[in-house]
Specification:
alpha/beta, eight-stranded parallel barrel, 22 helices, about 50% helix, membrane, GP_PDE_dom
Amino acid sequence: MVKHQPLQVYERQLCLSCLTGIYGCRWKRYQRSHDDSSKWECTWFLILSSSFLLLLVWSYFWWEAQNDYNEFNWLLYNRSGEWNDGTVPVIAATLVGFSYVTFLLILGLCHIALGQQLNLYWIHKIGVLAVLTSTIAGVVSIDDLWRDEWEIVLISLQSTGPFLHIGAVAVVTTLGWLVAGQVMHGGLQVIVLLLLYVCVLLGLYLVPLTISSPCIMPPASLKPRPSIIGRRGAPMLAPENTIMSFNKALQQKVIAFEADVTISMDGVPFLMRDHTLRRTTDVASRFPGRQHEDASLFNWTEIRSLNAGVWFLRNDPYWTVKFISTRDYGRAVNQTVCSLVELLRLAAKSNCSVLFSLRIPAPEHPRHKLWISDVQKAVQRSGIQPEQVMWTQDSYRYQVRASAPLLHQTVKEMLPVDGLKEKATHTLSLHYSKATVAEIRDSNVSLNVYPVNEPWLFSVLWCSGVESVSSDAPHVLCKVPHPIWLMSPDEYCLIWVTSDLVSAAIVIGIFILQKWRMSGMRSYNPEQIMLSAVARKPGRDVNIMKEKLIFSGDIGSGPLASSSESAYCNCIDYLCNSTASCFVMY
């Protein structure tokens, strides 16, 4: 007997084809399946999710580490001897890897939402493993090379924590649709998934109990805006430690200059951050055989003959040279190494203070026992008031105090009150990672924090009560008239509770909606025969309808077989008369 079977008329599913094709290279309809995913593919989805979370933390770290990009490059320079912007390849690789893994994760979640079987293509598996391995290698390398920088992640949470909490609640709430869809299928694994989801959601609801930010305070308790100190001048606008750089800092209304001082062979204190002159001068072309020598082994005449501006225009360490005017470009080309006397005279003229740290000459250096008197002579020659000079010197502190009692001395470590009295100082200059909010608010001394280049960090320290900050970017901080955000505890509590309640209501609604959908699908009788006829335009009949006859053996017997055959014949007659589509389902 001939069995008549109509070819089903499939609607084009371009989006679904792209979804399964890109994720698992399943471009054809017959390659797709609604069966449960294998344990192997579920494991790969967990690996993909873990890679996403790791890359999310890694990307967040580098986003917040913008404050210290120059410190990172300087660290690499001290290890390799060559100046390169090491952040560019790291950030580029992180951006590519994060985008790739995020895209695959979204495709995987769409598979789950549509009930499609997970089947990650083998090329994507290799790609995910490559991204995961390289990210782990990067984390290990940074932990070895730049371990102290991890502190910025915890510090940044004081600024971003409340907003990250709201974002995380929104994401987990959205995932409730997928979880609810899986829960409705039942089973032990589904119960475990539901418990895990509820625990994560409740944990997020209670996270604000652990969030502590100095910016959550009554606005009336906010202290005055911290003063800004130009760290090596304004090194983003001009070559560092040059007169041009300090003049640029003055234009940004700084109250003081911060510099690093070295003593030359003939006893002239000059400004130099590095141990050698290679990075910031043209010593390689002027004195090729001495480019690796210590900067203190040159006399002042030799140092003064070096150009200290071309390197800035060539290397562009802060990516700011393209914004420099033609006039400033010409000035930068002609900059020379600045002496301490020149800096002090500029400070005296502009009524600014100077905060400097001195690198003590080596024992074999001719000025090893005379460096204190060399600095004191420079202060006297400049005409600046000794009270305007702050000397950061942890070693030989008592000798400095005995020789120059009028100079203010600062400390680079947090000490108890008795320790500060012993060192005869009332000024602290701390790295931002070494100053906690509680210590800042409880300290009874003048506190300066460095380096502060990003507005978010400046805002956090402002709310903490810091009096001044040292910055490589005074032109950026001078445009921050108030903290980025500031709210009272009651306002934050209201936002917290409201977001949690809205999230809980949405999650409950999602589960109710999914249960209603599933109950509607279960009430459908798959054995009934449905006829669906849609009239088409006669001119498009050939393009829209596809039908075939498959000739085979016995069609079967029984009521269902005869009913199907009758329905099919009726449908064919209808199609011939009204040019419609027919679906036979059983």
